[in-house]
C-alpha cells in the first residue's frame, strides 16, 4: 500500500535565526525581492526604524563581519525572514522571547493576530 502525503510549503523560525550577511539578505533568504511585500513585512515586524538607523539601511552588513544587532533586533529580522517566505505553515520557536512586552504585543497584532500579515 502506498500513501502519499501532501505537505504545503512551510517555514520554521529557530530560536537563533541569524545569518552573517546584508540585513536585506537575512530577510530575503534567497527569495526574489518584491519591494511592496518587503515593505509590508518590515512594517509588520517593526523593523523600519531599526533599518533606517543602520549606516547603509538594509544594505548594511550585520553579524560577525558587520555591525552587531541587539537580541530583539535579531529576533525581528528572523521573524521577518520567516514571514517573507510567504508559506502556508509557520513553525515559530518562541519568536517574541527576545523583545519587550510592548513590541511583543505589536508583533503579535501585526504578524500573528487576526489582522496580521500571516492571516492574508
TrEMBL record:
Gene Ontology MF: a single term: ATP binding
Nucleotide-binding is among the record's keywords: yes
Taxonomic classification: Eukaryota, Metazoa, Ecdysozoa, Nematoda, Chromadorea
Pfam family, one: ABC_tran
Organism of provenance: Parascaris univalens
Keywords, comma-separated and alphabetical: ATP-binding, Nucleotide-binding
PANTHER family for the chain: ATP-BINDING CASSETTE SUB-FAMILY C, MULTIDRUG RESISTANCE-ASSOCIATED PROTEIN 1
GO cellular component annotations of the record: membrane
UniProt protein name: Multidrug resistance-associated protein 1
Amino acid at each position: 500500500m502506498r500513501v502519499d502525503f501532501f505537505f504545503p510549503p512551510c517555514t520554521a523560525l529557530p530560536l537563533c535565526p541569524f545569518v552573517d550577511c546584508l540585513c536585506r539578505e537575512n530577510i530575503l533568504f534567497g527569495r526574489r525581492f518584491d519591494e511592496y511585500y518587503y515593505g509590508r513585512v518590515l512594517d509588520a515586524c517593526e523593523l523600519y526604524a531599526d533599518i533606517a538607523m543602520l549606516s547603509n539601511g538594509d544594505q548594511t552588513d550585520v553579524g560577525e563581519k558587520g555591525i552587531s544587532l541587539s537580541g530583539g533586533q535579531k529576533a525581528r529580522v528572523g521573524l521577518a525572514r520567516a514571514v517573507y517566505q510567504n508559506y502556508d505553515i509557520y513553525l515559530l520557536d518562541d519568536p517574541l522571547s527576545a523583545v519587550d512586552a510592548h513590541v511583543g504585543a505589536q508583533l503579535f497584532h501585526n504578524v500573528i493576530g487576526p489582522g496580521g500579515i500571516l492571516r492574508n
